[in-house]
Amino acid sequence: MRYAMAIDTKKCVGCSDCVVACQTENDVPIGYCRDWVVEVMDGTYPQLEMEIRSERCNHCENSPCVRCCPTGASHYSEGGIVLVEENKCIGCSACITSCPYDARFVHPKGYVDKCTYCLHRVKKGLQPACVAVCPTKCMYFGDLDDPRSEVSMIIKKRKWKTLIPEAGTKPHLYFLI
Amino acid sequence: MREEIIVSGRNNPLIDPQLHIWHWEIPLYLFLGGLAAGVLFFAALYTIRNRENDYRTAVKIAPFVAPIALVIGLIALFLDLHHKLYFWRLYTTIKLESPMSWGAWTLMLVTPLSMLWCALHIKELFPKWDWKFDIIKDVLTFFEKNKKVLAWIMLVSSGILGIYTGILFSAFNARPLWNTSILGPLFLASGLSAGSAITIWLSKDHAEKKRFAQLDLMIIGIELFLIIHMFMGFLASSQVQIDAANLFLGGPYTAPFWIFVVILGMIVPAILEILELRKFKIPVVIPVVLVLFGSLMLRFIISYAGQASRWLY
Amino acid sequence: MNSRRQFLKISSLSAAGLIFGGGLLDAFANNLVKTNPSHFKGPFDFTRTPTYCEVCFWKCAGWVYKDENGRIKKIIGNNDDPNCNGRFCPRGTGGVGMYNDEDRLKTPLIRTEERGKQTFREATWDEAFDYIAKKLTKVKKEYGPESLALFSHGSGGKYFGKVLKGLGSNNIAAPSYAQCRGPREVAFIATYGQGINSPENTDIRDTKCLVLIGSHLGENMHNGQVQEMSDAIDKGATIITVDPRFSTVASKSKFWLPIKPSTDMALLLTWMNVIINEELYDKKYVEKYCYGFDQLKEHVQQYTPEWAYGVTSLKPQQIRETARAMADAAPAVIVHPGRHVTWYGDDTQRLRAVAILNALLGSWGRRGGYYNPEKASVPHFEIPKFPKPNKSWREALGGKYKLADLALASGLCDASMPSPDLGHQVKAWIVNGTNLINTLPNQANTLKAIQELDLIAVVDTMPMEITGYADVVLPECTYLERYDSLRVSQGREPSIALRMPAVEPKYNTKPAYWMARELAKKLNLLDYFPFENLEDEIDWELQQVGTSLEEMQRIGVKRIKREYDDLYFAKDENVEFNTNTGKIELYSTALADEGFEPMPVFVQHPEPQEGFYRLIYGRAPMHTFSRTANNPNLTDLMDENTVWVNPKVAKEWDLKNDQYVYLENQDGIVSDFSIKVRVTERIRFDSVYMVHGFGHTDKRMKRCFGKGVSDTQLITNVMTDPIMGGTGMRGNFVTFRFDNKKEA
User: Fold this and answer.
1) Nearest of C184, C189, C183 to residue C585 by alpha carbon
2) Does CATH place domain A3-176 in 2.60.40.10?
3) What pLDDT is recorded for position C115?
């Protein structure tokens, strides 16, 4: 079982609903965010093009954050989802420095926090909060090992890219372009 | 024009707008660790080569700096943790892929080892010292007899201590500035240089001073060589690495690095030591302080600049 | 100069109230979960209560979830709701912030004078209602009931509306008319005999071509429309965006027409020219349903693409290509009417052009174009008839704007100042849930009007700027803490939605229904409020349509079958339109009767002088007007607006990205605060852009005070639409300043 997410940049309007929904679902404190929206624009007026991406932890298959954690707090969980065990985390921030996507942050309570692909919802058969709320329905989530899941089918159909593939992290977050 | 911005107002403390999660605690510890490693390395080296009495300061007196440095360093590390009450988790597991885990365990080994070494030589500083308890005296006698073995262990572990601080950074290849294997040897060399400097400072024996000045010169030479090659490597690499190198070649860290670390921390002391060797009278404290300062600044600047270098945006 | 009403900042009077109220809530909350001893009729499943959102007009229905301590945790959409299909927008999801905002109004306040200085003092509800009732009665006696006015944007308007009507006034205005969609309504009524209303009846999900004129879908988060646009993109629809700025939707469009601002009318008329002359229009539809085609054809001959090039800076080839693309997709094409269309004063005519274009393409009443919306008919409990007003708001405005179908907020504001043109003067305002200072353009005008009033009572949840000018401030609880009337909205399918409180009102706040009823008690108008509790009235209404309060508390939304199966026109159906001729009027007889142009004509609008740039404003998907600017969850996303400046202009002025500047407009008004510069290629060199709703001046709103600039402050040149009084706001030009010292 390998969970992954695919996001259609052609439909995303950058409304940041995913950010607020994640905040209310996961009690992320005000002033912090587990996911964020990036707008990239190229060109000169009026020849312009733009890409909008909703980013978060990529739950990499070869994640540097799990490798560098000295206590094992950062670990692979169900379906390859990378989680942080609060009670093992010492707050050394090695994982934060090792993440090329800058996806982690230090929670005010002292441990390191990040997107969890809403594993607590996924276990109940629901989708992550961001995927469930997105008004443009541009986010897809599912099991890569299941050829009939939304994610597997959409990445077969469309062109996609991942972020910084040369970092070798094998991310599980695909951007459909 | 290319515009790449975060539109959802991301402003995670310590992460945005630029990573600044490690402050003075980490570079301070790295410096102290490197210093301790250098001192213990030479102590062990000359013990093994049976030159204990030729280099009395190096073997018997300078090592007293090590436990002090290490304890201060450990306190700094502890202060840096965000989830302090759980620090003991570090010692419930060994993660071979995590340089931080290595570091935790190496420190676990080196600190008591350095204290032991000092205990063996306590009479050098306090001639009238008396270990009141017999059991301590027995234990120390045992180690005195097996000093060579102890020295070998200390040689290896201090070597690991010295080099792992650089490997620690280079394991985080998410920060392009640190993504070079030269950092490990560079930090080891810097630590050895600091160790030699301390020895020169504390020594009263002219021959010892001369020897260590020569050693220091050689190490500085190696450091300069490594630094040049590090930059050559960056500039020949991918765009993120070039951007990282540019932090020092016109970017915000240019002046501090070249002035404090290279010129004041390496070149000037080298010149002063050459002059010393050519019988010019230079107060020994100047090159020593400059070397130590340069070593400290190296750690600080690499730490801060590394956090400023990034792959995205 | 001592003004009659000084702007008052609501100071920390209520700190004590906060501590008390907060503690009580905690103690109460622990009892609330699982047992529900509350005094309102509780739901079946107490951790999840139904509501519909109040943040914007779309009113999506959803569920409020509470955690194990009875605290509101999150709000998500109701899957059965056709407005949102189970997905809320960022403001709706961030609605929890509205509840948690500690800067909320906490207790009733009355303006008083202490030691020569004006200030607010805390008052009891009784005192506040006494004050208001006495004043209303006095004003009614002295000046007549036609001098009372209600400005409303939100659910409470219904209840205060009953009070006003009971007193004999029909001066009830929503700013969303003359300041927003008014021209569109009048234009479509003149053409098709019916307005658009809300939510818009655009069949985006089945369209093959969506034409957006200045409408920035995706940045304006009209939930259903954005969702359907996404569906359309999936199906490969062509999007044509006409916008001087490279908006989000422009980046998803097949054709982006970077038009010169204020020249949209020229483009629309030229499109008509191409479509008619190349015979791309729907001949059968036009023949069967339209009146005035021949006059239109003759009228548009002068508007050629080559002419348009000179006016709009759009290449003739592009104009022809897009016209053909629209015609290709017809009838599944939508020339979108937009929503906020009060731009240059000729807006009704411009929307007439939009309506005409749709008619030529045959999209009205067809799949992929405009469907025929239906609204559920929910009977109301019979109350006595309201007294007939002696004079209406129309007389107040001197008989102008006969074609306006709803009252004008700006009109009533103007009618509050003495003037020889007025029929009568408005002397008392009740303002419910609308921050008139940031809503009505020409702030100086609004403030002058307020000074002339005998009474201004403001009902709001936050200490917005308008509350600083009030005589009495009534703090309302948020939509998460009250019952409100059923949402009966139009759509493809009629639906009704229930709003019920998830938690008790925080602090000393109350629902608008209760306030209106208590006020009615004092005014002897209780006959119009037969139910003591709103939930009993809701229950009664629901039972008339075959359901009950108890059922609605479980399901939240009920979809009702359409009464008429007329979502689209049937093939060859004979349709009668509610116009003078009974047909779609391409040539408008109603407008001609009033002496206006029966067909839209291009008018050149003033352009900025050297060194000035047109101020274009718009929306961001994470905020709604100025109302959400202090919401903690939403300020996390965006806490200030930026001014978009073209790199060429930035170079001229030596402006750097993230630099802060002040703005000064053509009338010498300088912005109160500075705004961050965003140097971007996405905006034309003759304009600057900013998001509306920032630049708040009330210090009590700690998160948004002083952040960004208020575009309303810089909109002093109002171009009034002669047909229905809409206030055109895009004729203002700004320049940059590096300080905000005002000249003496």
Assistant:
1) C189
2) no
3) 67
